[in-house]
Amino acid sequence: MNPTPPDHGWQDHAALMADRTVRPESRWHGPLATTPRHRFVPRWWAGDDHDGEWVYRLHDGPGDPGAWMNTAYDPSLSVVTRVGPHHADHAAPGATVAETWPTSSATLPKLVVQMYREAFTVVQMYREAFIADDSRLLVTCGSGYGTALACARLGDRQVTSIDIDGHLVEAARERLAQAGHRPEMEVCDLTGALPGDYDRIISTVAVPGIPASWLKALTPGGRLVTTLSGTGLVIVADKTPDGGARGQVAPETAMFMNTRHGDDCPPPHPHTTSLWATARTAEGDVTTGRYPVMRVTGAWDVRSTLHLIAPGIEHAMDTADNGARTAYMIHEDGSWARARASGKGELPIVHQGGPRRLWDLLDKIRTWLVTDGDLPVVRAAVRIAHVERQQMTNRHPQYPRRRRHPQGGRRRPRPRPPPGTGPPDRPSVSAA
After folding, report:
1. Rounded CA gap, 256 and 190, in Å?
2. Is the model's pLDDT at 399 over the cut of 80?
3. Could you read off the pLDDT of 74-89 as tens digits, one per residue?
4. Above 80 in pLDDT, residue 272?
5. What does each C-alpha distance from 385 to 154, 239, 240, 389 come to in angstroms?
6. Is the confidence at residue 14, as pLDDT, over 70?
7. How much is the average pLDDT of 26-37?
8. Which of 2, 42, 74, 168 is the most buried (most CB within 10 A)?
9. Among 161-170, 195-204, 252-261, where is mean pLDDT lowest?
């Protein structure tokens, strides 16, 4: 009698995941229900505690079929397949890796579909830019699962999948073939020259700015969908006749790993370690903050606005047993801040130093939020100039340039930002 294969019954798991991710009438339901996601993640890394230290621990699917199916078909889970330079495929059984940055994963299915839907959705203002199902699609590879969904939806000949990691490309090529798909696969730096011309470019890794090569590779009226590094902003923009692109920030948010140009993420700035020590202990300028301590990394709109005004700020936060909360901010230019409050709703004592006052920047943004009820990034319009620069405004494409205050008259002007950061309702993003 033949033994039961470790992935027996995967179709039931996939069908349930599809039901939990999209409506049955969605054109993505079939690809989700019939694509064997577990075959793209036969081994993976998961965070764990090891003797009081946070580590990534290797898990082997065939060795634990129950965990394999539950992990692979969780619609809300991105399955990490590479941490730092360490591929799960190559790791020894039971391996652990000290805390580091994840560098590849099978993105959670709900988010993959969200990005693909943005590429197909007809935006009212850009109806002339709608692209049909025979469009040529460029996607990022990773585990290959997202590529498989695109192939199942559009057909293999319409899909090109790229990654800077040669092993990921070859492993995905083999697993895609096992699933019955043979798209074009290329080892390629996403931010460099692309291997063809495309009607859609969909990136499930974050970029610091829209690469000029994307505008060159997009066909007239083509669409790009991506996220900006350090933010939760999903950028959806259609190519315009002048070679640039225009669109808007999607209403949904997303966070992806940053694009890399080598085997691992770049190392921290040389004096980052000492700067964290400074932020934790130095006196600096001492003031009282305007608002209670917040976890900036958990507030996508605040974090995104702060990143557009002052890219590169790093954050940390401690919560003591007695309820005291301390937030830290540092920047590689030497700026730092520490804000400590005795309780969740208390105003903090703020210590700051370096060329910029980082906590003051954060307080200005929170003042905009309190005053206007939203921030410039919410449904911001996006303009990407050919080669030169990108810019976002807080004007929704269907809104007039000026909105009247509900009780008449003009809205109160936003507070002026510090010199050199640009007007507050027009944060700009440098092109790559």
Report:
1. 14
2. no
3. 999 999 999 999 999 9
4. no
5. 30, 10, 10, 5
6. yes
7. 96
8. 168
9. 252-261
Give the pLDDT confidence of 303-317 residue by residue, as tens digits: 999 998 999 899 999
* Closest by Cα among 430, 299, 312 to 377: 299
* Residue pLDDT, tens place only, 333-365: 999 999 999 998 999 999 999 999 999 999 999
The b/e string for 19-42 (b: 16+ C-beta within 10 A; e otherwise) is eebbeeeeebbebbbbbbbbbbbb
pLDDT at residue number 129: 39
Q: Which domains does the chain have, with CATH numbers?
A: 10-106 (no CATH), 109-253 (3.40.50.150), 272-370 (3.30.160.690)
Angle between helices 109-120 and 145-154 (to 10 degrees): 40
What phi and psi, each to the nearest 5 degrees, are found at residue 303?
-60, -40
Tokens of 205: 């890794």
Residues contacting 79, CB < 8 A, separation 6+: 41, 44, 71, 72, 105, 106, 143
- Mean pLDDT in residue range 216-245: 93
To 10 degrees, the CA torsion angle through 358, 362, 363, 368? 140
Nearest to 392 by CA among 400, 381, 404, 378: 381
Three-state SS for the chain is CCCCCCCCCHHHHHHHHHHHHCCCCCCCHHHHHHCCHHHHCCEEEEEEEECCEEEEEEEECCCCHHHHHHHHCCCCCCEEEEECCEEHHHCCCCCEEECCCEEEEECCHHHHHHHHHHHHCCCHHHHHHCCCCCCCEEEECCCCHHHHHHHHHHCHHHEEEEECCHHHHHHHHHHHHHCCCCCEEEECCCCCCCCCCEEEEECCCEECCCCHHHHHHEEEEEEEEEEECCCCEEEEEEECCCCCEEEEEEEEECCCCECCCCCCCCCCCCCHHHHHHHHHHCCCEEEECCCCCCCHHHCHHHHHHHHHHCCCCEEEEEECCCCCEEEEEECCCCCEEEEEECCCCCCCEEEEECCCCHHHHHHHHHHHHHHHCCCCCCCCEEEECCCCEEEEECCCCCCCCCCECCCCCECCCCCCCCCCCCCCCCCEEECC
CA distance 333 to 111: 34
Maximum distance among all Cα pairs of the chain, rounded to whole angstroms = 81
